[in-house]
C-alpha cells in the first residue's frame, strides 16, 4: 500500500468537515459518494483533494437519493464507503438508509444538522435527531453517535466504520453546522498507533461459487411476500440489534452522584452544559450532567438510576423536544420533575443553562 | 491575557474579518493555547454583515462556539456597529472605526469602554487599503493579548510567506500595519 495518509499523531487546527475527511482517510475508506449541501460540503471538498493522493475515489451523484444508494452499492461490493449530508439531503437519503437496515448493509453516514423544517437555515440545529435515529419506514435499527467536538468527530468517524462492519447495521455520525464550520484543535492519528485495527471488509454479493451448490446464497432481500415472513425477518433484525446494543452503547456523566439538578443534553450542547455545571458548582449549586453519546442505542440503563436519584431534570436541546422524546421514553414510570430548554435551530450558551438551573432550585 | 477571551469581529463582506480571525486563532493554537473560531454564515454569505466569533483560552478547551457577551467587539461598518450591540455588556471593550458615519447614537451605552480608531484612514493614507484587516489584527492582539506580536508575525509569515517571497516589501507593509494597529488602540486602553 502507498504511504499511510496520517503518520503517527499530529495536532491540527481545522474545521470539523476537514476532520471528517481526514478521519475517513485514516479509517482506510475506499470511496465517498456524495451530493453537495451546506453545511457539509467541505467534507467532499477535502476528500476530493486528499483521496486521489492515496488511491481513494469519489463519486458525485445526481442527488442524495442516489448518493445513499450508491453508498449502499459500494458497500455491497466489499468497499469501505460513506456519504455525508444534511437537512433536506438527509430526508432524501432515508430510503437508502432504511434499505441498509433491512439488508444489514454497513454503510456510514455523516450528518451535519442544519435548521429545519425544509430548507430553513444552512447554519445549525439539533433538529435531525428523530430523522437520523428513526427516519424512514422501519424500526430505527441504526447506530447513531452524537459528537460534541472535533476530537470526537475524528474518533467516532473511525469507530463508525468498525461498528458498521462488525455488526452490520448502518452507522451515523451526527454532527451539526457548528461542528462542521468551526475551527478548533484536534489530534489526528493513524488508528494503528492507538491500537485500533480496522475491521476487514468483504463483498456481500458476487461471491465465488454456485449459490445453493458450492455455498449458501447471499440472500439480501428487502421485499417480502407475506406478513408472517416479514415479521420473522424484522424480529430477527430487532434481536440482533438488541444483542449488539449493550456492547456499543456509550454515554458520559459529570458530577451526577449528589446532583440536585441533572442536565440532559447531547452533541455540541453538552459543551455549554459542562461549562454550566462548572459554574454552578463554583457557585455552590449541586448540578450534574448526563450525555448519551449513542442516541441509538440509548443508554437507558445508565440514565434511569441517575434520573431517579436527582431532584430535578433539565433537558436542553436545539430542537423542539426531539431529544426529550427519546429521554422520556427511556424514563417511563419515573416521577422526577423535568423542565426543558427547547431552542429549535438556535445555539445554546452556558449562561442560559446556569440561569435556568438557578431558577429551578 | 485572562483565562478565556471572547472576541466578536464584525464588518462588511470583503473587509477581511474572517481572515483576521483565522490568522489569530491559528497563531494562538501555535502558541499551545486552545482556540475556537466560528464564522457566522448563512445563505446571505455575500453581502450582509460578516461576523467572526473567536474564543481563546490559556489551556482548557473552549465551551460552546457562540457566546452571549464578548470581552471585545470590533465593528467595522455602520451595520456592524448596530448588529453587535447585542454582544456588549459592562465588561466589553467596544472598538469601532472613526470613519464610519452616522453611528454616533448607535454606539453602545453600557460598554466598559468605547474606543474609536482611524484604521480605515490609516490604511488608505499611510499604508495600503489591502492591509486594513492587518491593522485590525494589531488592534485585536494589543487589546486582548491573546497572542504575542512575534507569534502574530509568524502567523502572517505562515499564511502570506509565499507572497512575501515574491515581494519582500509586502512583508514590511504587513508588519507595519500590525504595529500601527497596536499603536492605534495603545493610547486608549
TrEMBL record, chain A:
Source organism, top-level taxon: Bacteria
UniProt domain Pyruvate flavodoxin/ferredoxin oxidoreductase pyrimidine binding: residue ranges: 23-245
UniProt domain Pyruvate:ferredoxin oxidoreductase core: residue ranges: 259-341
Record's keyword annotation contains Oxidoreductase: yes
Keywords: Oxidoreductase
Keyword hit for Nucleotidyltransferase: no
CDD domains per the UniProt record, alphabetical: TPP_PYR_PFOR_IOR-alpha_like
Protein name: Ferredoxin oxidoreductase
TrEMBL record, chain B:
Keyword Oxidoreductase: yes
Superkingdom assignment: Bacteria
Residue ranges occupied by any Pyruvate/ketoisovalerate oxidoreductase catalytic domain in the UniProt entry: 13-183
Keywords: Oxidoreductase
Protein name as catalogued: 2-oxoacid:acceptor oxidoreductase family protein
ATP-binding is among the record's keywords: no
InterPro entries listed in its UniProt record: 2-oxoglutarate_synth_KorC, PorC_KorC, Pyrv/ketoisovalerate_OxRed_cat, Pyrv_flavodox_OxRed_cen
Amino acid at each position: 500500500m502507498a504511504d499511510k495518509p496520517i503518520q503517527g499523531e499530529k495536532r491540527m487546527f481545522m474545521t470539523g468537515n476537514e476532520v471528517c475527511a481526514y478521519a475517513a482517510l485514516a479509517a482506510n475508506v475506499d470511496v465517498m459518494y456524495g451530493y453537495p449541501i451546506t453545511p457539509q460540503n467541505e467534507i467532499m471538498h477535502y476528500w476530493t483533494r486528499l483521496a486521489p493522493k492515496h488511491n481513494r475515489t469519489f463519486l458525485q451523484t445526481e442527488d442524495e437519493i442516489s448518493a445513499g444508494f450508491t453508498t449502499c452499492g459500494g458497500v455491497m461490493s466489499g468497499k469501505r464507503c460513506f456519504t455525508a449530508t444534511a437537512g433536506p439531503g438527509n430526508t432524501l437519503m432515508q430510503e437508502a438508509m432504511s434499505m441498509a437496515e433491512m439488508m444489514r448493509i454497513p454503510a456510514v453516514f455523516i450528518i451535519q444538522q442544519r435548521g429545519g423544517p425544509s430548507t430553513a437555515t444552512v447554519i445549525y440545529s439539533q433538529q435531525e435527531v428523530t430523522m437520523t435515529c428513526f427516519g424512514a419506514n422501519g424500526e430505527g435499527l441504526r447506530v447513531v453517535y452524537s459528537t460534541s467536538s472535533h476530537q470526537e468527530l475524528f474518533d467516532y468517524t473511525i469507530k463508525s466504520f468498525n461498528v458498521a462492519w462488525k455488526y452490520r447495521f448502518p452507522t451515523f455520525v451526527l454532527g451539526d453546522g457548528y461542528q462542521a464550520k468551526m475551527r478548533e484543535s484536534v489530534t489526528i492519528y493513524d488508528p494503528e498507533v492507538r491500537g485500533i485495527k480496522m475491521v476487514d471488509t468483504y463483498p456481500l454479493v458476487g461471491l465465488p461459487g454456485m449459490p445453493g451448490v458450492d455455498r449458501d446464497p447471499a440472500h439480501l432481500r428487502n421485499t417480502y411476500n407475506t406478513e408472517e415472513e416479514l415479521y420473522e425477518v424484522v424480529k430477527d433484525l430487532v434481536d440482533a440489534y438488541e444483542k449488539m446494543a449493550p456492547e456499543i452503547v456509550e454515554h458520559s456523566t459529570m458530577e451526577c452522584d449528589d446532583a440536585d439538578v441533572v442536565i440532559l443534553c447531547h452533541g455540541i450542547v453538552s459543551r455549554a452544559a459542562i461549562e454550566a455545571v462548572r459554574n454552578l458548582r463554583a457557585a455552590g449549586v449541586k448540578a450534574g450532567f448526563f450525555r448519551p453519546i449513542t442516541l441509538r442505542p440509548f443508554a437507558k440503563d445508565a440514565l434511569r438510576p441517575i434520573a431517579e436519584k436527582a431532584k430535578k431534570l433539565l433537558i436542553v436541546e436545539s430542537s423542539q423536544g426531539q431529544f426529550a422524546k427519546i429521554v422520556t421514553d427511556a424514563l417511563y414510570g419515573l416521577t422526577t420533575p423535568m423542565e426543558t430548554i427547547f431552542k429549535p435551530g438556535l445555539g445554546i450558551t452556558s449562561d442560559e443553562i446556569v440561569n435556568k438551573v438557578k431558577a429551578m432550585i | 491575557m485572562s483565562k478565556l477571551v471572547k472576541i466578536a469581529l464584525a464588518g462588511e463582506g470583503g473587509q477581511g474579518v474572517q481572515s483576521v480571525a483565522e490568522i489569530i486563532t491559528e497563531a494562538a493554537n501555535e502558541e499551545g493555547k486552545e482556540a475556537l473560531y466560528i464564522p457566522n454564515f448563512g445563505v446571505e454569505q455575500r453581502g450582509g454583515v460578516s461576523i467572526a466569533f473567536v474564543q481563546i483560552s490559556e489551556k482548557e478547551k473552549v465551551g460552546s462556539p457562540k457566546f452571549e457577551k464578548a470581552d471585545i467587539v470590533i465593528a467595522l461598518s455602520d451595520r456592524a456597529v448596530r448588529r453587535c450591540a447585542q454582544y456588549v455588556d459592562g465588561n466589553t471593550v467596544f472598538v469601532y472605526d472613526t470613519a464610519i458615519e452616522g453611528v454616533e447614537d448607535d454606539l453602545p451605552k453600557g460598554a466598559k469602554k468605547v474606543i474609536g480608531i482611524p484604521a480605515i484612514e490609516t490604511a488608505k493614507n499611510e499604508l495600503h487599503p489591502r492591509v486594513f484587516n492587518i491593522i485590525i489584527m494589531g488592534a485585536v492582539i494589543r487589546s486582548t493579548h491573546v497572542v504575542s506580536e512575534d507569534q502574530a508575525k509568524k502567523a502572517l509569515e505562515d499564511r502570506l510567506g509565499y507572497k512575501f517571497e515574491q515581494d519582500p516589501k509586502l512583508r514590511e507593509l504587513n508588519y507595519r500595519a500590525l504595529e500601527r494597529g497596536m499603536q492605534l488602540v495603545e493610547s486608549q486602553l
